[in-house]
Amino acid sequence: MNVYDGLRIAAMLEHHGLVQTDNVSDADIIILNTCAVRAKATDKVFSALGRIRRAKRPNALFGIVGCVAREAGATAFRRIPDLNFVLGPQSYHKLPQILDNPDAKLLNIDLGGLEKFDELPQMERSPRVAYIPIQEGCNHVCTYCIVPYTRGRELSRPFNDCLRETLHAAKTGAIEICFLGQNVNGYKYTDENGHTFRLSDLIRETAKIPEIHRIRFTSSYPTEMTDDLIDMFRTEPKLLPFLNMPIQSGSQNVLSRMNRPYSLELYTNIIDKLRAARPDIQISSDFIVGFPDESDDDFEQTMNIADRIRYINSYSFKYSPRPHTAAALMPNQIPENIKAARLAKLDTRLNEIQREFNESCIDKTFECLLEGPDKTGRHLVYRTPFMQQCIVPTCADAPALAMIKITAANKASLRGKFA
Ligand code: 5AD
Ligand code: SF4
Known about the structure:
Elements: H1 2-15, E1 29-34, H2 39-55, E2 61-66, H3 67-72, H4 75-79, E3 85-87, H5 96-100, E4 106-108, H6 115-119, E5 129-133, E6 135-136, H7 147-150, E7 155-156, H8 159-171, E8 176-180, E9 188-190, E10 196-198, H9 199-207, E11 214-218, H10 227-235, E12 242-244, H11 252-257, H12 264-277, E13 282-289, H13 296-309, E14 313-318, H14 336-360, E15 365-373, E16 379-383, E17 389-393, E18 401-409, E19 413-418
Parallel strand pairs: 1-2, 2-3, 3-4, 5-8, 8-11, 12-13, 13-14, 17-19
Antiparallel strand pairs: 6-7, 9-10, 15-16, 15-18, 16-17, 18-19
This protein binds 5'-deoxyadenosine and iron/sulfur cluster.
Iron/sulfur cluster binds at residues 138, 140-142, 145, 147-148, 182-183, 221.
């Protein structure tokens, strides 16, 4: 979501005649797009602002957008008095106001609007993978999560707007579409005739666009994985066989304290249905370890579920108490050293499973999408249908979509050659 927001902000500023620079001391305007989901990310924002303040040109404008802006609000100006703007995740389309009036202080952390999507100019060229936000905010109120506070209640964009943006992306270079939302599979839009559209409708329509070869969506909430959507994995070959569906914890007790009221049985049933619909489907998850009052036994159940589902790619985090969340006030917060030990243990196991899956891909051939050159420029990075990185030697006229045979694998990536 932040990558998408960043691209839209960059396109808007280019529309205003600005060009991008990587050099802080050259810039006329410096914008930090921020994430508030864990305390560490938030802390980094303020130390980065301190560095930028010293490195920037004296009259360059600087400020923050995104969830830290929403969380910090006016206190950001108190911490860094010469900051020029603080704009929440639903008000960054107001940025041109600061270009018109650079002496003002601009603060807007309002919620509830989708105007930013309509007010911003469209991108002239789309990346090969186009992110299309279709839903923003979240109604689930997991007790650890700041997102319902920073991005607000769940809003689904009008179906036709989503389709229009998807078509525009296809006509301007996109090959893969990734639908985005904090709770993307909860997408639901009812038009003026009372017709309700779901994510499955959007996938079905997008699959008809000839330029689009790959479709995916992220992030999914388990109980919103409805049968119409599961069926898409059976009927729609352009939908990639890869799904991010975070479980967060393998302990039923922890899940209920997290206010994620689904049973492990329901979760595993959904995975069984997905595998019946698409036998090669692979799942990724997010995990939180060290949630308040998590016992050794609770944690072992998380280890067990990781083994049982065999997630091929996961993000695991130490629980981080956040403002405006219920879990921050719960008793029996877990000490840092225990959180760290549990994270290390889980990560080791998740990495092994990931490496085993990567190794199982050797000698198989997949259609992969070109991401671009690697850092050395000697290799090209492609993405498999399971979103693994696959590295091939650079060649002239490398096709955007190529059949690649996997020749080697480690935990982080695959190597391959054109088949
Ligand atoms: N502490 C640690 N991880 C968190 N996440 C969300 N809130 C917190 C928190 N307070 C993780 C969840 C979510 C991902 C985006 O970030 O795993 O799926
Ligand atoms: Fe946060 Fe995701 Fe839970 Fe929504 S479903 S409250 S975004 S963790």
